[in-house]
Design goal:
43% helix; Lyase 2-enoyl-coa Hydratase, Chain  A, domain 2; 286 residues; alpha/beta; 2 domains; 10 helices
Length: 286
């Protein structure tokens, strides 16, 4: 797993296999641009292929987790050197001047980033330190767990600009809120405080600002200690079941079970149960 400082974010590693991704442009409320999204997609590609990586934590610096797309900056603005992928040639910003360019940009960058987060088979945690708006909210909702600081605020707010939640926020909100509440949330441009977000089911827990990262790390360590093969299979099965009927969900998890049941972690789990001791999973990663 690559570490360091890239366009719009840094990546650091903690044992055992926990990556912390920090959005690091607080003066711009950690707004997203296409170069940032491209680097994030590449980082997630590397994370997917790194078997030693177990958990990813996303968080922000300053007053925001991410306040959404940085609409004040040109599409091809370069935040800093050190990108993970080559720059798109100058003039890319003009692609959104026509319909096909808008479509291609959404499919290739904004929507692809959220798919990369959701499709990652490692567990993900959003440690929401401040404002999570529009694409920032959607990225957080794509994570498996969300812990919010009491200073966090969550919302879409795209209609304030006459825009749509085109990165998939409407679908993600439907999964968490249901139809009626999603309609209200989007069309009334709601931005809710952390405790209300918890009541709505948008976040799992709310903690004081000073406890946010320790709470996220505590959860990450718990997840990292679990049987990684079974957990990765189960994560994929749960998300697929959300979009499937019962028969399809049964077939999918049966296929995945043929892998997890034959893995050393399963044998260790059964042996530990019989011997009345705690299991020692993930020897294959040691």
């Amino acid at each position: 797993m690559i570490t360091g400082s890239f366009r719009g974010f840094t990546v650091s590693l903690e044992d055992p296999g926990i990556a912390i991704v920090t959005f690091d442009q607080p003066d711009r409320m950690n707004g997203m641009t296409m170069p940032i999204k491209r680097d994030l997609i590449e980082m997630l590609t590397q994370a997917q292929m790194d078997e030693t990586l177990r958990v990813l934590i996303f968080t922000g610096s300053g007053r925001a987790f991410s306040a959404g797309d940085d609409i004040a900056s040109p599409m091809d603005a370069q935040e800093k050197s050190g990108g993970l992928v080559p720059d798109i040639p100058t003039g890319f910003s003009r692609a959104k001047d026509h319909a096909l360019g808008t479509y291609n940009g959404l499919r290739t960058f904004s929507q692809a980033l959220n798919l990369a987060v959701r499709n990652l088979d490692k567990m993900t945690i959003a440690a929401i330190n401040g404002a999570a708006i529009q694409s920032g909210l959607s990225l957080a909702l794509c994570c498996d767990f969300r812990i919010a600081s009491t200073t966090a605020r969550l919302g879409s707010g795209t209609l304030r600009f006459g825009l749509l939640p085109d990165e998939g926020g409407h679908h993600l909100l439907l999964q968490h809120l249901g139809l009626a509440r999603t309609i209200e949330f989007l069309f009334r441009n709601e931005i809710v405080e952390a405790e209300e977000a918890k009541r709505l089911g948008l976040v799992h827990d709310v903690v004081p600002p000073g406890d946010l990262m320790s709470a996220a790390m505590e959860l990450a360590l718990e997840l990292a200690a679990g049987p990684q093969v079974a957990m990765r299979m189960l994560k994929r099965a749960v998300y697929r079941a959300a979009d499937s009927n019962f028969a399809e969900a049964l077939e999918d998890i049966a296929i995945k079970t043929t892998v997890s049941d034959q893995h050393a972690d399963a044998h260790e789990g059964m042996t530990a149960f019989r011997e009345k001791r705690a299991p020692h999973f993930n020897r294959w990663l040691e």
